[in-house]
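User: Hi! Is it possible to get a structure for several chains at once, not just one? Here's what I have:
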Amino acid sequence: MSAPLLEASGLKRHFTVKSGAFEAKRFLKAVDGVDLRLNTGETLGLAGESGCGKSTVARLLMGLLTPTGGEISFRGTKLADMGRDDIFSFRKDVQMVFQDPFSSLNPRMRVGDIIGEPLTIHGIATGAGKRDKILDLMEKVGLAREHFSRYPHEFSGGQRQRIGIARALAVSPRLIIADEPVSALDLSIQAQIINLLQELKNTFSLSFLFIAHDLSVVRHMSDRIAIMYLGKIVEMGDREAVFSNLLHPYTEALFSAVPQIRPVQRKKQIILQGDLPSPLSPPPGCPFHTRCPYAKAPVCTEIPPSLEEKEPGHLAACHLSKKLYR
Amino acid sequence: MPTLLQVRDLSTHFHLAHGTLKAVDGVDFSLECGETLAIVGESGCGKSVTAYSIMRLVMQPGKIESGEIIFSGQDLLRLSEKEMQELRGNHISMIFQEPMTSLNPVLTVGNQIAEGLMLHRRLSRDAARSEVMDILQQVGIPSPAARFNDYPHQMSGGMRQRVVIAMALACRPRLLIADEPTTALDVTIQAQILELIDQLKSSSGMGLILITHDLGIVAERARHTAIMYAGRIVEYADTGELFHNPLHPYTQGLLESLPQNAIPGQPLNTISGHVPDLLADLPGCGFCERCPAKEWRCSEEKPVMKEVGSDHQVRCWKFK
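Assistant: Yes, the chains can be modeled jointly so their relative placement is included. Here is the combined structure:
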């Protein structure tokens, strides 16, 4: 296996929350000890419900937020040790595609300028060369030449997402972090964008961190999958290993809650009780024990489980082995 | 089962400065008591406008141009606004997509639910209060007495949607229209809410129109399904039949484009192009620009709904 492109260990981000002048500071543990590794040419799918910390992980890995603990290294160099120039080239190598194609494009810039801006910033192309490069990018993502001087509001959601993808591709990145890139799109458009991302991944041998809450999309796109719950990864492994043999009760419930089209795939739904606990006061022990149908006192309620390899290449953070809870 | 709602040739148009947008263009369907009908389609296909038309909540510049909406024997389009107010929230209720914007932020949730009860069932404040407690309990809100005085912002998304459901069901409506009731929620919460709606439906025998774009929800919850495209219903069938034997090219394309139906990593089937501009006059089939099976007449003549089997209708020239 090749050396990891991006690696995070013990990654933490705690936000300070203070609601009143005399109130004690409290910590919102958005990301609380995440280890992950992304190899060259690989797609890692990060899934979880809203508030589980997956977008914070993305922003930490992009260098947009400073971690409060742990470290990130990109191609062997720690982010914290990078100087100005290193950071500048890191920013070129790691690009982001955002969820909302309506708010992530500047409404006062023309499409050509939006896609061309990173080329100028990184000094990649100017003048006629830049224009050719932009047109080339537009063609690759399926936009027409005449779209060059139009404004974002003239486009539909799917086409705007194509503009965002072209902008990310402009600087020939190694890694693209896509935060819910298709969840704002209609069904028939979603398939077009998924295909485009797959195609670009193969053409440019890109690596992807693919964040989504739709498990069928994550399954389709990813080589490996990580599931987050309350700031921690609860299960991680190769796509088929995870989908064929769920090890964590949360993943099991999450998968069973997805409405299925084919009746044969419908298993008994596990309907979780209650809501996600507040990340301001996460439960002690296993963060999932408050909603877990198999939780056993005192082990689950007191000791936080660590992410362990339960099967080759398949990790889970659960005290109970499968036999115990089935 | 008796018919609860019959919609015939409903058209709702929006008269804009630069033309007329035919959001709903000749929609027919019917719903029996205790039945769930799913209306499926992409954004802009007219599914929400259909719902708003039944509720008679279409705002200017929108106007219901023609058609009949027969609800338990009377045409809703012929009622006065005052008569409609008697029905709305009482016999016909609606759950809106966004639980944050459909609740009043400056009223406590208890008082918001009680409002309908005091208005429609003329309950006293105290009687309404105890009724609200019961309903909150039914929709699975823990410690309702404490939650009664909460404001919407103090609740999570799932809890807020339960409040919206409680409000819609407070007067025990005979027809419930749920417009994307779980789109804003996470899957585990979505499962809770859909299960709850189903339970309440089977205990009260009300009819449910479920508007969604999630075909998984449709497959699991609805008896009949109507697929809408560009303001028209293009296919209507028993849900099992529709998924087993989709006939309209749009329905087929939609089902084939789902990641659930594909081999991971392989390219998905796609429907090329995008939804037509509804401001333009569409003389033929709305889907013909994107249709792989297009014939000469598709762009010239509007296809009509054809009965192709028991409980299966399709609007396509392939079926004559």
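Chain A has a mean pLDDT of 89. Chain A touches chain B through 40 residues (CB under 8 Å).

User: Great, thank you!
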